[in-house]
Amino acid sequence: MYLVTGKSGTAKTTLGMHFLYEGLANDETVLHVHGEESAEELITNADQFGIDIRPVEFLDLGPGSDFFTEDPSYDLVDSSDIDQERYTEVIHEAVEEIDPERVVIDPITQLRYLETSDYHYRKRILSFIRFLKKRGVTVLSTATLGKNQNASADIRSLSDGVVELSRVKDGRRVEVVKNRGLGQIEGDHGAEIRSEGLEVYPRIRPEPSNREFDPTPVGTGITELDEMVGGGFERGTVTFITGPTGVGKTTLATLYLAQATRQLGKSVIYLFEERIETFEHRCRSIGIPIDELQEEGVLSIQVIEPMALSAEEFAHKVRREVEEEDAETIMIDGVNGYTSVIQGDEDDLDRDLHALTRYLINREVTVFITDATHQVTGLSSATSHEVSQIADNLIFISYVELQSSLRKVIGVLKKRTGGFESSFREFEITANGVQIGELMAEYSGILHGSPQAGAPPQRDPKTE
Predict the structure, then answer these.
(1) What's the pLDDT tens digit per position in 375-430?
(2) What angle do CA 146, 152, 157 make, to 5 degrees?
(3) What is the pLDDT of residues 25-50, one digit of tens each?
(4) How far is CA 377 from CA 214, 387, 446, 462, in A?
(5) CB of 385 within 8 A of CB of 339?
(6) pTM above 0.90, yes or no
(7) What are the chain's domains?
């Protein structure tokens, strides 16, 4: 016996429809015991999701339309004196006659109104569950939170499993709080009502990888840039490219991705902050061959609309690309867009992004992520969020004031798997593509945003 709980409108009945439909698909006999909606209404509601439950056996415990015109004196009599045995006999007879393998009781709390006390209700429910289990029936029941909490608490304790559905400001959530003898993935998970009904997206759980690390370098084809990172970033690593808005992070990440696509195979770009039209135009203008890669079917560009997906649903989109479409390289543009576009709390999103990247590198997928820092010049922190621990490699691009003009510089802050240049180079995007200048070894103070030629001034501890 499983109990599905939640407030009104959280898709409890829809989940019951899926349960019944799956039974029909397995050639099982199924029974729907209902009381709040008629069989016609249930069939119509299921039809809108393409779920045909017409072959289901229905048992309606709700009052007929003639109840409204019956003798008003009926209300003066305890309903349990009139209905209790009749309803119990009806359910018992239906189960014995139909002999179902699955039963949905929606809602089970309607049976509470047939009993004189909580004690009798609990006793009746326990007897009912034992009767069904003895016949080998699997039961899915629903209970609406906010109505008769004591009744639902009794059923929770008697149920073998409990599923809680909820709607929060960031979307729908589902949590399995009990699954006796089997266990469950802890915590809440993403859920949405889509055209085919209720869809559930469990949190990604990275599993240990048995694969050997592949040190194949992924470069850009730009000699100076590849020299900065020791020939390229290794396959199956996570590279963060950080810097202020408009500095060229997305362009550089796309340059890496295009080269990785040629080397490794299919790639996917997820855009969170930019229209695909402007993105493609910028790439074309500097010679990044995204049109050619798309035409060859090795590059997919997907725009993620604001608040359309939970973190779990986005992770499952990525997972499908990796496991079903054999994507070898993933680009997420960028962290700020991810945390503002994806539904959920910012701290939870950072955790979910971490889990997603761990899943990807365990499958030897190469990942590029852009991240916008808040400072226009200088560098006070490596990333805008507490996500730097995710990065295997970390490149930053920044504005600096150099000889009374605003210029750009690029540097490498981190590379887990090898050496890299500790000096900076000038960075420029021209009509001919990305241009990397000579080493800026003669300058100091670059990280402060105002480079000075010559050695840094000596510190005098007496004046500090």
Answers:
(1) 766 565 555 566 677 889 999 998 887 777 788 999 998 998 888 988 889 999 99
(2) 145
(3) 999 999 999 888 899 999 999 999 99
(4) 36, 21, 9, 30
(5) yes
(6) no
(7) 2-201 (3.40.50.300), 217-453 (3.40.50.300)
